[in-house]
Amino acid sequence: MNNGFLGFDASFMLDFVVSALVLIVPVMLYSLYVVKVQKNFVLHRNLQVVLGAILLVAVTAFEVDTQWVHGGWENIVNKSPEAPRLSGEAFSHVQKVLWFHLIFAVSTPLLWGATLFHALRKFPNPPLPSTHSKLHKRLGWLSTIDLVMTSTTGLWFYYAAFIATAV
Ligand code: HEM
User: Fold this and answer.
1) Residue 5: CB within 6 Å of ligand 1?
2) In whole angstroms, how far apart are CA 140 and each of 35, 54, 71, 132, 156?
3) Closest Cα to atom 37, ligand 1: which residue?
4) Can you list the positions of beta strands (E) in the chain?
5) Structure pTM?
6) Does 24 contact ligand 1 (Cβ within 6 A)?
7) pLDDT tens by residue, 34-46
8) For the segment 112-128, what is each residue's pLDDT rounded down to a tens digit?
9) How many CA atoms are closer than 13 Å to the CA of 97, on its beta-carbon side?
């Protein structure tokens, strides 16, 4: 699919992943409220497992679409090589924003996976605070910050590539 549903000259999967990144953040914050304030450890675990699964499916589908179907992000930004929408300075600015975004976009699933893997193995079932709490809180907050940065810089890329330059 070539065009997205948000009304810009992006792609369906790019619009899908941008929407997922925006929706994931409030769910993540709710999951933290649930564990920190309500001490509902089971709901926290379930929300995090579902979020992890959504993240995995969304990112995999997005990568397959961007790399294999479109042949790279450049072909989504510039759909017709004869009349590129972005070139020169504008293109290299968007490229820089993308590199910055990729620092967080690549590290988030790794950190997320490690946090989830250790939590599921080391907390009792049903989950309760334990000797794993100290490491889990550290990994958990790092994952949260990384996710928020992935989301923020992803929106920045989308804005720079498709909204600021929309005609
Ligand atoms: C990547 C997924 C996860 C993230 C990002 C995450 C994040 C966090 C964070 C930031 C806290 C600390 C809140 C505070 O400062 O008090 C926390 C606490 C906790 N989480 Fe997770 N969590 C994840 C997955 C899980 C899973 C799968 C389980 C259960 C198997 C779990 C069980 C707990 C428990 C029991 C606590 C309370 C620890 C304590 O207060 O001693 N978490 N989580």
Assistant:
1) no
2) 12, 17, 34, 12, 24
3) 129
4) none
5) 0.92
6) no
7) 999 999 999 999 9
8) 999 999 999 999 999 99
9) 19
